[in-house]
Amino acid sequence: MAKTKHIVLGVTGSIAAYKAAELARMLLKKQWEVAVIMTAAATRFVGELTFRSLTGRPVVTDMFAEAEDWRMPHVSLADWADSLVIAPCTANVLAKLAHGLADDALSATAMACSAPLVLAPAMNEKMWQHPATCENVRLLKARGAICVEPEPGELACGYVGQGRLAALEKIMQAVEKALQSPQR
Ligand SMILES: Cc1cc2nc3c(=O)[nH]c(=O)nc-3n(C[C@H](O)[C@H](O)[C@H](O)COP(=O)(O)O)c2cc1C
To answer: Does residue 12 have its Cβ closer than 6 Å to ligand 1?
Structure first.
């Protein structure tokens, strides 16, 4: 029997964070195991309890919390992951990943992880079009990250433009593609 896939789902501080709960459900429906890491900002938008209940696993929010085993969560999850999926992904996390920052559980896991990376950014259109964000996305794609670009439409901030989290089905397709990439 094929080994079940392990997905680490990173959730960041975007208004679209609530959609990550449905994405977690869709990943679980594939019979994949899902472990969630939330940034501190993400916990302002949606409760850790939602993801803990859906996945049946503790949610990592604090890199320095008491770990269940002797290993540091960012290292054990990085090794466990068959794919690291960050949805929604803020402009801030794009910048951190592009430049190798590792100052919280999610960015440290991303740095320690060699599994395929899927990013689904969501943000205000001006943030998305900012030259810094464009350059960060270019860098991350050049390193092999799969970027599921945000879609045009009405944004929570009141603007109409490109910035909405891509349809969850599109993100799922990207995860399937990532899982098919050659073994690390
Ligand atoms: C109501 C609200 C909505 C926000 N939505 C977004 C968003 O969709 N995308 C984004 O990049 N930042 C958004 N931000 C800003 C981020 O929350 C902020 O940059 C935060 O520091 C991101 O932290 P993180 O990247 O560690 O999750 C929003 C802030 C607020 C107050």
So the answer is: yes
